[in-house]
Amino acid sequence: MSDLNTKISATVLFINCFRIENKDIFVDLRRNTNGTYLKLSERTGKMRKTVLIPASGIKKLQNVLDEVSKIVNNKRFVLVAFDGTCYLPTTSTVRVHLP
After folding, report:
1. Does residue 37 contact residue 51 with C-beta atoms inside 8 Å?
2. In this structure, what DSSP letter does residue 6 have?
3. Distances (CA, A) of 77 to 21, 63, 65, 80, 93
4. What is the DSSP annotation of 29-93?
5. What angle do CA 25, 30, 34 make, to 5 degrees?
6. Other Cβ atoms within 10 Å of 37 Cβ, number
7. Structural domains in the chain?
8. pLDDT tens, 41-94?
């Protein structure tokens, strides 16, 4: 039986870090015995938060970030309620079907 406290070593395939406002952002592409994954981390002061995304989800993440970028660049922000209703800056309301 394997020890749960044993860390799985990972091979680093890509690393990039940059600063946005008061946050340090780290983007790593890594591979271990479980597969290849994207590791996104943010550090603010002494706090560090990390998200791991399997390589199979990177394209989907890219598509979502492209959509977010278009919204931010057009300054057309959309508020989405938990029930899937979108509230546009105009008076129109659109239903969104969430998976």
Report:
1. no
2. S
3. 21, 17, 14, 10, 13
4. EEEETTEEEEEEEEEETTEEEEEEEEGGGHHHHHHHHHHHHHHHHHT---EE-TTSEEE-SSS-E
5. 130
6. 20
7. 11-95 (3.10.450.700)
8. 999 999 999 999 999 999 999 998 988 888 788 776 666 655 655 555 544 444
What's the pTM? 0.68
Gyration radius of the chain's alpha carbons: 18
4-51 pLDDT per residue, tens: 556 778 999 999 999 999 999 999 999 999 999 999 999 999 999 999
Task: Give the tokens for residue 31.
Answer: 């591979």
